[in-house]
Structures are given as C-alpha cells and as structure tokens.
Amino acid sequence: MSVGAPGLLAQEERYEHDFEAGVARSPWQLFWRRLREDKVVLVALGIIVALVLVAIFAPLVVKLFGAPGPNMQDRNAVDAFGTPLGPSSGHLFGVDPLGRDVFARTVYGARVSLLVGIVGTGVAMLLGVAVGLLAGYYRGWVDTLLSRFVDVVLSFPVLLLGIGIASACSLGNGCVAGAITPGVRTVILVVALVSWTSIARIVRGQVLSLREREFVVAARSLGASNLRIVIREILPNLTASIIVYSSLLLPQTILLEAALSFLGVGISPPTASWGWMIADAADNFDTQWWYMVFPGAALLLTVLAFNLLGDGLRDALDPRAER
Amino acid sequence: MPRPVKRALPLALLCTAVAIALGACGSSGGNSGTGATADNGAGGHRGGTLTILTSQDVSSLDPGSAYASLDLNVLAATQRTLYTYKPTDPTNIAPDLAAGPPQISPDGKTLTVKIRSGVRFGPPVNREVTSRDVAYAIERGFNPHVANPYASTYYGDVVGADRATGGPIAGIQTPDDHTIVFKLTRPTASLVAQATVLPLSAPVPPEYAKPLDAKAPSTYGNHVVATGPYMLTADRSGTVLGTGYVPGRSLSFVRNPNWSATSDDRPAYVDAVQVRIGGSPTVSGRQVLAGRGLVLADSPTPELVKQAYLHNRSQIFFSPGGGSNYAALNTAIPPFDNANLRKAVAAELDRQQMRTVRGGAVVGDIASHFLYPGVIGFEQAGGQQGTGADFLANPAGDRALAARYMKAAGYPSGRYTGGQTLQIVGLAGAPDSNDAQIFEQALQDLGFKTNLKLVDSSVLYARFCGLPKARVNACPNVGWIRDFADPQTVLDVAFNGNDISPENNPNWPQLKDAAIDNAMSRAELTVGTQERANAWGAIDRQITATAAAIPWLWDRQPNIFSADVRCVPELWNQGHCDFAYSSLK
Amino acid sequence: MAAYVLRRVLWGIVLLALVSLLTFVIFYVLPSADPAQLRAGRDASPATLHEIRVSLGLDRPLPAQYWTYVTHLVFHADLGYSYFSGASVGSLLIDRLPATISLTLGAVVVWLLVAVPLGVISAVRRGTWVDKLTTGGALLGVSAPVYWLGLVALYLFADDIGKWPLLPGAGSYVPFTNNPGKWFASLILPWFVLASTFAAVYARLLRGNMIEVLSEDYVRTARAKGLSERRVVWRHGLRAAVTPLVTLAGLDIGLLLGGAVLTETVFDIPGIGRLNYDAIIHADYNVIQGTVLLAACFVIVANIVVDVGYAYLDPRVREA
User: Running DSSP on this structure, what letter comes out for residue C36?
Assistant: First the structure.
C-alpha cells in the first residue's frame, strides 16, 4: 500500500464563508450542507448502513435466504473426490471444500471485517491522536522522543511486523500476559499497531500550528492548565480532521485485516473471514471460481463504499477548488 | 523430526485374501487396483533427463542426517547402504553394499556383514569403499554436529554406543577391509540388520569427512560423495553447494563415473536428473500432467487426483501403505485424561469426511488401528476389519454411541459442560487444514469450546505437539510412517511411555500405560517374523483400545508423472519414482 | 549541506540498529522452531538436543546471542545461517533480490506511465466523463485487494488456466539472466496488478495537485501571455504538480524493495517478501532478521534520499 494512500498526507484546513447567501455560516453547517448535496456519498453511506445491518443481523439474513449456517458442513454438497459444488438452488453461492455454504460465510465474514475495521481504526486513532497531541503540544524532548519512536516504527516493514505479531499472539494464552487473547483481539491489536503512525504525524502537525493560535494563547495567558487547554481548545478543533482521517483509515484497516487473513495469520478458521476464504480458494480458483469471486466482491464493495464515504467527508470539510 | 509425508508398505509378506481383494498383491507387487501398475521400468530407453518438481526443498543431503521422504528418494540414487529395499519389494531387505545376507549369531547379539568389493566412491575421493567407511558413517551419527535422528534408537544396542559422541565405537569392528561386525548388548541383531536400510549406513570416507564434521553443524552435506549410480554435480574439490545443490532452487544429478553396473542391480536408465524446487503443488501438478519427462514429488491436491484419476489414469499411481494418519489426544492433562471422553470424540469423528476432503476413497482406507496395510502385524491387529473397538466401528461416526460415552464420562446431557477451552493445533494448508477443521467441528458438536491454530509442520512438532509444556489438547494432523518393515518402528517410539521427553517428544498423546510399556519391552526382544507379528499386533490392539489417538486414514499415496515417464515407484518410500530404476519412453 | 547529509545518515544507522533490536525482541516471542530440534529430528534425546545447542551457541543468554549477531553483521558481513534452508542468510537474500527489484522497478514504470497521463487529463477535463471514469477507476484500484486482483487476472489471462490465455501464469518467473524473454513475459501480469493500487493513488494525487497548480496566479499569467494551453499544462503545470509524486515514488520504491508479499505470493515470484513470509511461517529466525533489516534499509535509504533532495531544493529544511 502506497505511503500516499489514502491521501493521508498532511493537509491544512480552511474554513470558508458562504458569501453567496451573504451569511457567515459555521464550518459545521457548511459541512452538513455539502454532505447532503453529494449524491455519491449518500449512496456510499446507504451501502455502509446496509452492510452494518447485515453484519449485525447475519443469522437473520442467512435464514431469510434459506441458506444453512456458516459452519454447517454439508456432506452432500461435496462429491466423492472431495470437489465442492458450485452455485445451486440449495447453495446460492456454492460451497467450500468442507461443504460449508459460501453465501452464509460471506455474510458472516462481514462481521469480522467490520468489527476489526471499526474497532481497529478506533484504537489506531486513539493511539495516534494521543501521541500526536503529546508530541505537538509539549514539543521539546517529548516531541523528539515520540517522533523518533514513530520513525522507528515507520522504518519497519509494517505488513511483516503485523504478520510477526499476529503469529506470536495467536497461540495458547496469547500475549501481554493473556490480555490479548488469540482471535479477534489479536488482529485488532495488530491492525491498530500498524496504522497509528500516520495519524500521529498528521495530528502532531496540526497541533503544532493550533497551539500558536490566538485562542490558545489567550487561554494560556488566563492561566488555564495544560490539560484544560488540550481538552477544551485544541481537541475540538481536531474533531473534523479526526472524523475525516478515521473514515479514510477504515478501508485501509479492513484491507489489512483481509491481507493478514489471506496470509493465514489473521482470524483463525473456522470463523468466516473474507481474506481467509480468498486464500483458501486460491489453489483451485480456476475450477471453483465461486469461492474466490463472492468474498472478493464483498470485500471490494465494502472497501469501495468506505473510500467513497471518506472522500466525500473530506471534500465536504475541505472543498478546495471544488473537487 | 517425524515425517508428516508418507511411506509405502511391504506387500509380499501380507498377501492374504484381504490384501488380494485390495489389489495389493500384483505380480510386480504394486497394483493397487486403481491407477498405473508399478513396473520395473523396462520399456523405456536409456538416456534422457528426468525432472522432479517439488514445492519443498530437501532437508539434508548428508546421509548421516537425512530423514524426510524426498531426502531418502534422492539418497537412494546416490548412496548405497548395506541393505536396501528394492522398489517393488518393501518387506524383504536385499543386499546393496553387502555381498550377501546378514549373518546373525545364534544368541542374536552379533551381526556380521560382508561388503562387496569393487564399489568405489565418486569423485573426488575415487577409492574403493571399505568396511572402515561404513563404520565411520555410523559412528558420526552420534556426533552432535551431525545429529542423526535415529542413531540412538536403532544402533543404541551396539556396545559402547551409549557413550558415543562421534568417536570410534567399541562394538563396531572391522576385522578386514570387507567385513563389518556389530556387537550388541541385547539380542536385537535382526532389527539392526533391517535398520541398515536407512541412509546412516551409507559409507562416508573419514579422511575426507572428518574436517567437515568438525564444524558445527557439519558441512559434509555440502560436499557429499556418492557411491550410487548418480551423483550431484560438483566442482573439482567435491563441493556440491552452488552447483549440484542450489538451496531453495534446484538439484542436479549426473552419472557417477566411478559406479560400476556389474556391482549393482540398478539399471540406471536416465542420464541425468533435475530437481526443481519451489512452485505450488497445484501449478506443478498441472505441468506434470500436461508435460514431458516430469514427476511431481509433492502430494497432488484432491482436484488434481480427481483429474488424473478420471482422465490420465496411466499417469497416477497410488502407493499402498503410505502411512497412518491419526489425531493425538493429550492424555496427560484434562479433559482427555478421561478415557470415556476420548472414546466419545473417536465415536463422534466422521473419518469418512476426513478422507473425502483429501480426495475420496482412492487416496486410502479408513483406519481403525495404527499398524497399516503391509506392515508386519497388520492382520494380527485386526486387519481391515479393525480391532472390534465399538467407538471406531462406524467410519462415518456414531453419534448415539458418542453421547453414551459422554454420559459415562460424567456429562449426562451428552454434551461437554466444563469450562475449559481446548487448544487444537493442526497443519496449515489444504487438505490438512480441512481435516483439522472437521476434527474441530466434531469437538464442537460435542459441546467443547475450541481454539484452533494452523501452523507449519516444523513449528507444529517443535513448539506444540512435541512440547508437553505447551499443553495442547489435540493434534489432529499427526501420523507415523515405518522406518523399515518392522512394526516396532511404527508403534514403539510413538506410544511408549518411556519415550516421553520434555521436548521433541515423539509420543504425542503422552500415553503412559504400564501394561503396554511392558508388552513393548518384551516385544522388542522377540525374534522371528511371525512371533513379532503376533506380539506387536496384540500391542496395536491394546493401544487402540485406550483411544489415546484416533486413527483415521491409511494412505494410498498418489504420485503423478508425465505420460512419457516410466515411473518405478519406491513402495518403501511413498511411491516416489526411483531415479535409478525409472526411464523415459 | 554536508552536515545535514551526515546527520541524516547517522540517524539512519541508529534507526537500523533500533529496528534490529525490535525485531530480535518481537520474533523471540514468536513460537519459533528450535534449530536444534530441526536438526536433531524426532528421536533425539534431551541430552542430544542440549549438545547440539551448545555446539551452535544457542544456550547462551539472549543479550549475548544478540551481541554476537550484531558483531558478526558489522565486522564480518555475516547475517547468520538458515537452519531451515541450509544456506547462509546472505546468500538467500542475494538470490532473492533480483526478483524483487525486477518486480518493483517494472511496477513503478507501469504505474507512472498510467497515472501521469490519467491524472493530467482528468484534471484538465475536470467534471467530464473522462474525469469521472478515471476517478471511478482509481477508486476501484484503491479498494480492491491486490491478491484478489491478481487471482482474477490469472483467472482471466493466465496461459495455463485463464479464460483468454495470453500471458504466463503463476510460477513462471525465471531470472533475467536465464531467459530475458520469459522473464519479461512472466512479469507483465504481476506488474500491472501491483501497479494498480499505486496508479490509482498517484492519479488521484496528481489530479488534485494539477487542479491547484492550474489555478495559481503564474499559470493564469502564462495563459494571458498567450502560451498554448498544452504548453501551459505540460510544461508549467505538470512540472510543479509532479514533484510530490516523485518524492512519494521514492518512498514507495523503498517500501516495495522490502518485498511485496501479497503479489509475490499470488504469482509465486521468489522475492524478498516471500522469503520473509516463509521465514515467519517456518519460524526461521535468522532469515526473518535478515529480511527485515534489508527492508528497513531500503526504506531508510529512500527516506534519506528524499529528505536530502528536499534539503537541496529548500535550504530551510536543513535547519530542522
């Protein structure tokens, strides 16, 4: 994944006044208006909401379409040589080599992707914002230390780091003395650890400039404590950025989880995960195309929707020269 | 390290009615009734290059440390051991370096072997092989720089072997250049004679190898010298690393100029052999089926097996007796310290489906005990019918019986209600990962909560299943292959309570049953093929009854090769095509 | 200037040391295969294992082992030995590097050749169907997982199994020195697949930059002076807009030289990424350490080159 994806290079914000109406609107009002007018974003949002609902109500959705459960191994859907059957009336998307319904597993796979994506992004944002705030606000040796640490992490080939940690933490009692148990928690941790650094850098840059603004200087001269300044003055001004970068980071974390699963170090089977299904299908995709196509398409759709949403949010917040 | 790949079986001994029905007793000893016939390679022409495709590299080229089935396949063409198995007769040892049958003293404690003359080392050593070379080869197995995996198991009874660290061993004597004598502490001479089929007894020239063995680890493998019809291409100093062997890439074999056809039964038709390493079995398999002069060393995927079986029947050979696959249950810790729970799991497991995901009925028989077809003692343990254990009676599983065993174990609802989450460790990659998931599903159907981890085979044994302190509850993808035809090699190390060790433990279920251990101690010393068959067959029944491990497949290892290849499969080594016997049409 | 370069290089060396230490710590925690067990096999007694360990120096405390590793690396350029492959780590890296370099450089050429024209055109023809198509395509490129794209590409075009057999499929890579024709053909699909994501990102980036640049004052001046639109766009606009792309490309090259694991896996290309991944799966510690160091090296060097380039162009940066 390119260093420049998904457009997470440091950007400044500009707030414009809506001169047409002759009224000075707040940035938030402008933001909502632009968002509402962007058709593409609304469609993307609709898809995402649908995906989240499908993920939450997976058992219902599966039942609605008359498919068996995701872990049900249907002996009759596999022939005498172990070759699975393709899409049929009993199995909309065909079955995998163990006779499990691909439609059901694709639906349940949404749970994993969305859960890891959302929570992983949340944790990454938390880490990144915290570090960026500290480094940007306190500057000096704190900044130097933290920035150097970020440098070290960024020099590390991150996917390999992710593979290593995922591999290490997915056995027995997990790692960090059992706090990170094997399974979803490990993957969330790995995904967050790999993604937080770019956020930290951006936030640091913004905090560096924010802290020199008049309202911060004023607050300080009034004797407000550092904590108060950070929470009441700086953080609110970061909110917009945080929203935008979260939504830009989300599709990346979803792809990262799928990549880890594809390489066999993500969510362990038999839990359905799109990346793992694609990997499992890779050997025989020329004869068992359904097993690769459907999870892949689901993954593509999800990531695309989030990317569109992220783009739309960024454009709504920062419409330089009408993208 | 235990070989997760399979090996083949001895057929000649076991041609009972049942075996004939299996089609396991063709005149050339290899017709399993499906696929091609094992032949002696005649009909092809002299010359040409045979190309082997494999996804995995060889582990070692040093006959003192090689153990995996591909290593053995390679060494069979380049090294001559005292005795060997002919490709089509995996039961009776035949003299290779030896001039005649082994001479065993009446008390069974002395083994004398005469070595034939006229066998010479390949370049750069070039001289004639003497008994001192064989002695050194075995002695160096005890050197930690060489670290032979089976030296202490099979040569441990030699006088002085318990103190050996690579230096001369008192019990190995060479009264003259062509005689080697083994003096043993116990009457196990016939077992030692059979053990010489393993590569350790291939001669190694001490003056050439000692400086290499002084390094840690020994680098003899990079400079290995041949005695067989083929050798790895090497430079003038004998270094094969970089020319004949490019790690992770290729191996190249040419004819050994010092090999004399008159001293050897091997026909050695082909002029050269190339081994190409890397590439997925799926892609390589397709190339083999469609190409020329190619052989696949890996296990073909179920898809490929189906395709070959249906459309290229003459290009696939199912090698009988590939080994036994079983699921080991950890008997040392809860919950599988409870025998009824183990039996419940055994009854619940659908072993037929375990086989289906590997390719279906063509790839093997559903196993019901641990000695597999063709190993001595198989019939005595119950043969194809099984031992009579009720929890293994139905290959597709018996849910009602499983529920009854659960109740007997203290779970009246028929499902597990304890709080423990079971740790299961299986092999990554299809179809092994599929088998692990089927096994896990069976456990979940019984109410267990499980955590499945799929890892690479070296990690599986070194860090999980072979390490008692890892506290793994079940290992569904383990298996065992005989080292040679004797049943002791299948049962002893794998189930003997005295063999449990804190690391590198081969007794994965950690079975420690005094009655079984005593029976094994007695059976080790039993002399006579029929007597050993009875003794070990009975032990197999006892082990099966404990349900410490659930046997699920006796492999018929599929091997595929191009249409123009006359493959002579090594029935003693999972059907790998033997270079020195195969030919091209 | 020289002082700046020196400072960056020194910091780069420190970074490498820290990365190696971090690798040592992390991968020690991994469930690694014990080299002694790998060599000794299933029947070795604990006594034998212990002897092997002593002879290999594995029984000494960890810091001592790490120190030995570092001194070997620095003074003897010895990266250790891979017990799994039976070869020195250095030789494995040298063996695998050409494939990764081939893959990376080819992909860079492809994505730049695709991204630059598309980015410029969609910026100039902003709002038209060309723009929408490009943007849509770019979004797809960014959203599709590279391994899935690779599998689909193979499914469609691989000469052994594809619907329209055009190009060599997975596993057909041969080194350039063996057969240049086959080398080239076998890399076409991987290049395009790997380039797809990057092309998408770069096209979008260039489009955004171009739009900004084209609205700048000096561009309006150039237009007013009567220069042709083409000259304005390509000579003045592109030159300014492309600079961030060049630096980004430098960083991405550094990243990719560390190995593109996913692409190498799907197409079975024996590169550094695959080597690293296999080493992690087989728990071959020395190889892991070697490949991670190599990858970090490339990233750090790329960063230094980019930073020095900036410093050369903008003296203010040197003070930072």
Answer: H
Q: Is B33 exposed, middle or buried (0-12, 13-18, 19+ CB in 10 A)?
A: middle
SS3 B251: strand
Dist. CA A164–CA A180, nearest whole Å: 15
Q: How many residues does the structure list for chain A?
A: 323
Which of A51, A95, A40 has the alpha carbon at shortest distance from A298?
A51
Q: Tell me the pairing of strands B294-296 and C87-88.
A: unpaired
What does DSSP assign to residue B252? Answer: E
* C-beta separation of C235 from C250 below 8 A: no
Closest by Cα among B578, B574, B556, B571 to B69 = B574
The percentage of chain A sitting over the pLDDT mark of 70, rounded to a whole number, equals 85
- Tokens representing A248 are 């830009």
Digit-coded pLDDT (tens) for A159-182:
777 777 776 665 555 565 555 666
* Burial tier of A179 (Cβ tally within 10 Å: 0-12, 13-18, 19+): exposed
Contact between chains at A160 and C152 (C-beta distance less than 8 A): no
Q: Which of B60, B459, B504 lies closest to C44 in CB terms? A: B504
- Write the residue in C91, C160, C282 that is nearest to B459 by C-beta: C282
Domain annotation for chain B: domains and CATH numbers: 49-269+563-584 (3.40.190.10), 323-556 (3.10.105.10)
Nearest in space to A184 (alpha carbons), one of A282, A116, A114: A116
Give the residue, A44 or A11, on which the prediction is more confident.
A44
Q: Which two tokens stand for residue C315?
A: 């003296």
Q: Which residues of C touch B241 (CB under 8 A)?
A: 87
Chains adjacent to C (≥3 CB pairs closer than 8 angstroms): A, B
Q: What are the extents of the domains in chain C?
A: 96-269
Whether residue C258 has pLDDT greater than 90: no
**What is the rounded CA–CA span in Å between residue C35 and residue C56?**
9
CATH fold of C96-269 reads: MetI-like fold (1.10.3720)
Chain B residues touching A71 at Cβ < 8 A:
441, 444
- B343: its two tokens: 């039996």
- Out of B306, B357, B444, name the one closest to residue A98 (CB): B357
Q: Do A97 and B302 touch (CB under 8 A)?
A: yes
Contact at CB, A155 and C296, closer than 8 angstroms: yes
User: How far from each other are the two terminal CA atoms of chain A, in whole angstroms?
Assistant: 24
CA dist., res. A45 & res. A38, Å (int): 11
Phi (first) and psi of residue B433, to 5 degrees: -65, -35
- Interchain CB contacts (distance < 8 Å): A and B: 77
Residue B11 has which token pair? Answer: 């057929």
Burial class of C76 by CB neighbour count within 10 A (0 to 12, 13 to 18, 19+):
exposed
Q: Which residues on B lie below 8 Å from C87 (Cβ)? A: 241, 247-248
C52-110 pLDDT, tens digit per residue, is 677 666 777 777 777 877 887 777 777 777 777 777 888 889 988 999 999 999 999 99
Cite the DSSP H helix spans in B179-301. Answer: 189-195, 206-213, 281-290
Question: Mean pLDDT, to the nearest integer, of A231-253?
Answer: 85
Query: Cis (ω within 30 of 0) for the bond into C270?
Result: no
**Which two tokens mark C229?**
């639109």
Nearest residue in A to C204, CA atom: A7
Type of residue numbered B41: G
Q: Cα separation of B339 and C237, whole Å? A: 79
**Cα–Cα dist A5/A9, whole Å:** 8
pLDDT for res B32: 40
Q: How confident is the model at residue B241 (pLDDT cuts 50, 70, 90)?
A: confident
The alpha carbons of chain A give a radius of gyration, in whole angstroms, of 23
The owner of tokens 């094969």 is B240
For C10, residues 6+ apart whose C-beta sits below 8 A from its C-beta are: none
Closest CA to B275 of B301, B240, B319: B240
Is-contact B202 B75, C-beta < 8 A? yes
